[in-house]
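step 3/5: co-fold with molybdenum atom
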Amino acid sequence: MLIKTPDLIKPSEITDRQLYLNRRKFIRAGANLGIAGALLNTLTISGALAATKLSTVKNRDYSTDEELTPYDAITSYNNFYEFGTHKSDPSENAGKFQPQPWSVVVDGECMKPGTYSYEDIINPHQLEERIYRLRCVEAWSMVIPWVGIALADVLKRFEPTSEAKYVAFTTVMRPEEMPGLRRRVLDWPYREGLRIDEAMHPLTLLTVGLYGEVLPNQNGAPIRLVVPWKYGFKSIKSIVRIEFTRKQPKTSWNMSAPQEYGFYSNVNPEVDHPRWSQRKERRIGDFLKRETLMFNGYGEQVASLYRGMDLRKHY
Ligand SMILES: Nc1nc2c(c(=O)[nH]1)N[C@H]1C(S)=C(S)[C@@H](COP(=O)(O)O)O[C@H]1N2
Ligand SMILES: [Mo]
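step 4/5: write tokens
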């Protein structure tokens, strides 16, 4: 099987792959224009390294069939404040970031705490493709073909105890590679958390790729969370710590503006953000707005998690 992580690729191969991708792009363009491949060798190698292909099985049960947001939009219109607060900052500033080698500290209420490498956590044979809607709290949305593993399958291996009521996640903090950390727009490191049943829900994905290739740095390489029924900020990027806790953990946006961002942050068109409505959203690429769906359209699967809870209070 042809699965490689970036640290296993020799520089010679990277060059070949970049050339291959450039050629593929060029051939596509050339085919339309009716020109031959004679110019191919003059192409220059530029830009970020090409991504590595991942072999996956598509999970149709957990995929929407809506039109995919183009790769270029998903990878150039980002929120990743460690690289800057403008949507174009992450793709422009994340080139220095080193996502390999990688390790994650697992601690708190579990029987198997420790420091685990990327390879310990991600079994390439378990990778699935899942096409999810992502709804940002800023009222835009995308449809993204993620590659990942159900978070539950990863967490179970650490054997959480009965005291594990929540799971807390932390993003890496590398000022040398992440220029956005210089400004204290948030109380770094970026932190997020889920209740244990949310973390164990089969829709919750530990994500390592998109469009069948490893995650670009700006999308949270090498490991990020994706929780499709919650606002995008719950989907924490570049995770270096997973802690099982008894108490509800602190989360970055809640600490920064508690009246605007709650712990749950389920997509909810009925509960406005104090400064704007959440009733509608603009799908990136669309002209007209569309209605936002309760739980981002995943209500059938997740509504039962919140039975009996006042979702205006627990926003
Ligand atoms: N560490 C970290 N994770 C983060 C963010 C961030 O600024 N830092 N932004 C969040 C927000 S607001 C959104 S909408 C999604 C965006 O993910 P994408 O850029 O892959 O679309 O990432 C989330 N995860
Ligand atoms: Mo967001």
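step 5/5: annotate
Residues 1-47 have pLDDT under 50 and may be disordered.
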